[in-house]
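tool_call: predict_structure(chain=1)
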Amino acid sequence: MSEHNKAIQEFLEAACKHIHYKSIHKSIINELTDHIEEQKTQYIKEGYSEEEATAMAIEQMGDPVLVGNELDKAHRPKTEWSILSLIAILLLIGGVVQFLISGANPDGSNTFIRFLIYASIGLTAFTCTYFFDYTQLARYSKLFYFILFGITLADFKYSVRFNGTYIHFYGLALLFIPIFAGIIYSFRDKSYGAIFACGLFYGGAALLCLIAANLSALILLSIPCLIILTVSIVKGYFKGNKKVGLAIVYIPVIMTFIWSIVFLFFQSPSRRNRIAVILNPELDPYGEGYYVFMIKRILKASRTFGTAVLEGELKNIPLHKMLPGWSTDFSLTYIIGRLGFAAGLIIIGIVSIFIVRMFISVIKQKNSFGYLLSLSACIALTIQFALYVLSNLGIFTVFSSLTLPFISFGGTGFIVNMVLTGLVLSVYRRTNIVDDRMVMNPHNWKLVNFEDGKIIIDLGLGKSKRQVE
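tool_result:
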């Protein structure tokens, strides 16, 4: 090492000693080196020797201790206190709701106790995720995918179906969403075959939804995955023409949607009748349309404050006996009927503010993977909230096993939603720490290769050269 480079190295080491987070050292060294070299070149052009130019450039940078301290202040973890405060409020509301539900029905006396247990587990999961180095999801996204895939298959083997559905899969499906964001990032800067490979990874998770016979899980998985893949293409994460990339995604999606509609309407009379009842529940008010019919009766009888006043045959029947799923799938309907529209609007308003604040934190993200990951988690939470509200207002109740994040009962869903929120805040926390750079892959990666008369499908499991530091 020359004396000139040694002097620069000593300055950089002295500055970095005062920067606590080592993960940012490399980018800071590169940035400071660029400044020194640029100023050094300028001095050389003015007629100074290389030795003099180096010394003057380093001197112009200032005291390395002061430089290091200033950079340390600029690269500290950030805390989003408004989101943390909203989470605390939502958990408090959830506790109150579960306490009311627990007291409304002798059979639900343990509901509040179970909520406290799951709340403790959820807070622990949130804390671990909050301090988790989320960049690991970019480095090992495919490993996480196959681990979760294996856990899901084990759950299918050792758990039992409830009404023909594996209800625990709801939470597991949500976990595939941030992992899918990591998979997209691992294929970044590759061509059309990478988009198709992302589709294969999504297809594996979607297949699990079909095995679980869980339509809610399939919708909650599909919409966020479609959105983040679309965003990735539009933002240029993949090489090639963006319109072609979008066509690769949306042509199969549209064809699948059309095929599903044709199958439902023309191949299965029972499904066709069920859809007709969903669209018009009065066709079968005490059968397939019972949920919507009863929700509308309760909402129509609800007041701004206080308990709903029902007439006719429902006059003296307690609310929790009218509506199956009142403590889980239709908690919001129950709260409106029990406490009034004001209580329901307060809950919807606070959750809406929480989601808006989450998206604001996403918009502020400067690094690529952090943006994609936090966006995926926000969309997953938003879709749950939107579908739950639509279902509880009787607008669309085709979905079951839905969760109102942090409010309605559901142990697995509660814990997973805490994890998703923790991921968003983990990304925000490390905004000034993570250096999101791409390390170009020198190999010409292809999804399908032909070697020795064999067709080889390469999902990129061993060639992820993408680096997030």
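agent: The beta strands are 436-437, 448-451, 454-457, 467-468. Proceeding to next step.
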